[in-house]
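Re: that backbone. Tokens:
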């Protein structure tokens, strides 16, 4: 079982323990914010922190069985 914690109130469970599946999901979230990394856009500190936290998901202690996805800044 794979538990993805979005925050304390929202937990999504997947029947998988495949690290590749988790990385693909993380990569989709990163891709949705790629526009903020374009050379003509000034990336906010909150977005920079969010994107780094996404990249750090595989380093979380119980990865890939349990991990927390950061909340995307507005």
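Recovered sequence:
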């Amino acid at each position: 079982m794979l538990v993805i914690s979005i925050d304390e109130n929202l937990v999504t469970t997947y029947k998988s323990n495949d690290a590749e599946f988790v990385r693909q999901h993380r990569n989709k979230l990163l891709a949705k914010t790629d526009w903020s990394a374009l050379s003509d856009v000034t990336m906010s500190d909150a977005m920079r922190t969010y994107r780094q936290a996404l990249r750090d998901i595989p380093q979380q202690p119980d990865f890939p069985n349990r991990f927390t996805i950061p909340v995307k800044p507005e």
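The helical segments are 19-31, 45-55. The first strand starts at residue 2 and ends at 7.
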